[in-house]
Amino acid sequence: MYSHEVDKEILGYWEKNKIFNKLREKNKNKPPFSFMDGPITANNPMGVHHAWGRTLKDVFQRWKAMQGFDQRYQNGFDCQGLWLEVETEKDLGFNSKREIEEYGLDKFSRACRQRVEKFSKIQTEQSKLLGQWMDWGNDYFTMSDSNIESIWYFLKKCHEKGWLYKGKRILPWCIRCGTSSSKHEMSDDGYADLIHPSVYVKAKLKGKTDECLLIWTTTEWTLSSNVAAAVNPELNYVKATDGNQTFYLAETLVHKLGNEFSVVGKIKGKEMVGWEYESFYPELDVQQGIVHKVIPFDEVGENEGTGIVHIAPNCGDVDYELGKKLRLKILNPALDDFGNYNQGYGWLSGKNVKDVKKEIVKELDQRKILFKVENYKHRYPICWRCKEELVFRLDFSWFISCDELRPLMKEESAKVEWTPEHVGKLMQDWLDNMDDWNISRKRYWGLPLMFYECGKCENLEVIGSKEELKDKSIDPDKVDTLPELHRPWIDEIKIRCKCGAEISRIPEVGDCWLDAGIVPYSTLKYFNDKEYWEKWFPVELEIEMRAQVRLWFYAQLFMSIVLEGVAPYKKVLAYEEVRDEKGEAMHKSKGNAIWFDDAVQKMGADVMRWQYCSQNPRYNLNFGFGPGKEVERHLRIITNLSNYIKQNCKNLDNNYSEDLASKWILSRRENLKKLITSALNDLDYNKAIDSLKNYFLFDLSKTYVQFVRDNLDDGKVQRVLYDCYFDGLVLLAPFLPFITEKLNLEVYSKQSIHLEDWPEINDNLIDNKLERAMIDCDLVIQSIMAARDKEKVNVRWPLNKAIVYLHKDHKEVKASVETLRDLILKQCNLKAINFIVVQKTLDEEIQGYDFDYGHVVLDLVMDKKLEAEGYARELMRRIQNLRKEAKLIKEDSIELFIDIDLDLGDWKDNIFTKCGASSLKFEKSADVKHRLDGEIKTRKFSVGFNVLN
Fold first, then answer.
1. In contact, 229 and 220? CB cutoff 8 Å
2. What is the pTM for the complete model shown?
3. Which of 276, 320, 814, 830 could cross-link to 170 by cystine, CB 3.0-4.6 Å?
């Protein structure tokens, strides 16, 4: 009986017997298989979504180990960036950067480090419970000085090549975190479906009495920065009035005005270009001197809003680029780092954009320029760390130009084997559309950007190593005594500019994807042991979520192209999201989230791993306890088969049986080895485990055992079952490490199934023709069984004959099933069977059962001999059940009594033999310990026995 309690037992066994160490020693100095673990953020306990990737990583590493490859087994922890900062702020009860600075950067950095140390330990223990084998204790941490120095080296290379620059851009900005995001961070987690009030405002046209442009926007806070209104020159616009108000808007959107308005004129967008209109806020300092005009913009659409777009170049990236192109006035940033309006915005100055939105709408109404407000649902960017809504603001940041790198990255990405294939296309699309990499963040716990700007001569010094920092430092001893390469300690190091000025490091830290992107270099000793690096680079395989295409996979590719001009990985496997079993996103607030600890305690690691490994990576996984119950049923069948083998395979021969059923299962085993090996080579892990499920649940348990159950006294048959089961366990071991180890120890007593070699294929045992015949045979058997069910004749009751009419389109089936006639007779409990090829249409008087190949007719006439056999089989089943209830094993002998008003003929001997009887009396005995009275059909019976010592 399967129980996930086996997990703890096996974990203890592995630890006590140092199985992982023995595996590493076994493969030491053999050909390398380089696997790079994408670092998990050491910020919270693991979720079940983390466990999908960690399971797949473990599957492939275990498989390659069984193939005899040496591996590094280095786990990674991501340690820096806003995710860590936001959670540490929560620990400390903070909600702003000001509170961090008041607390002290030194104490805050220590708190961040302590959080990493805490959760890296928790995640390590959780990963062990999942069955993941790694060189725990030899993990890499992206916050390490060595990792930081590696990135410094990379950034200096970018600077030397002229790719590093400081630029003014419109940036997606989190006002809670007080910093920007880069475009690649705004992936799936960077957007949410939100409802915002959208406003329709009137822009009064100059020189046209009581005529207005009708402008629509979802960001009313940006209207104070408006400098122009854009129309599509080729669109048709209309002039519409209700007698009191007159508006211009796109013809296709005139319905937005309501039924009171009628069209009184039409005009092309290009005819409107150059019209001037009044400022929404003429009194604001920032609005002084601006001539507000209608400008042309081909990308203005006619399906949303009004077809006239409000342009604020300091509040939107498209607006900014358009403003530069048309030389519009670009105002200074409307908001500061925290979302407060800057000076020059009149009554708005000093107010926070989050707090003032309703006030703005009210004020627009008071100015009599608000036409209407309506709710608008759209995908809107949010901070992927704290989930606050982002704004877009103009600010300086540091970038790496990608113009020269883009074609090189595309070329190298095309050489990578991406699985699923469409993931490679996603990477190509991303490389086509990516912006320059925004690498700086105005935060604290992260990679210190070693950029020293001289305010005197405008020289930029980029430091590429700790040694270089020491050489250029005003106080080299301070560098030697740095406790770590983080803020605030690194901020104290000043250097001397070539002009003689004393300069300080810029305060920004780096994008956290720099931390993870460098690991194919920092962890593989690129900077201090090139021979070691060349052994393990490029990485053979990486496995992460599909969302990492724009994040970790991209960052690695970018940094590797800069350093060596090649992709850092050969193969990438990407998978989708983990959902609940109904397919809905898991959320704590919805009550459908499953925590890792709950899952592993309630269903066990192997049940979790089976769910992960069964899912095609191109689709979301519907994970839960319901699907877990189904997996438990599968594991019970596999476990029960091991018990069957222990009971029945005690006289093993050294040779295999030559019967057809045994030849078939041996062929299936060899083809299974081929299939699993090929599937794993293709990263098609779900195909592999589905094939293993079919092998254990159907080929072995349902088919082969049924075929040979009456011949299991034959040591050669036992050997076939014994070996086929073990090889199946070996193939299953990378997927389900706990139960396969347990069954190995119970049945085969090998030191560890994970120390076994990956099974070699014996082509001499493969008989594809026989396997094809068995498929036909199984279909015929199933059709006969279905016909029995239809006639309500249990398979324990023998039938004289079955006739199988085969359609002429399937006449070749006759030859294949003829070779397996004896198996069909035995499985279907028939005395004879005839196969007849006929036309598709049978005479109506032929009654029976239709199946894919034709039609089955049963001879239901039951003579006394058949009847005796049927009753004998029914009695044997009841006696065996009684033995089972008495907890007897096969070797336990019994004194058997049977009372039934029927002559069982030759079947008396069968009952005697198959029921483990030392004596058999056909009489009713009152003096038995185990007894059953009942009816078979309408005939009463009594069976009973005593166990003999």
1. no
2. 0.89
3. 320
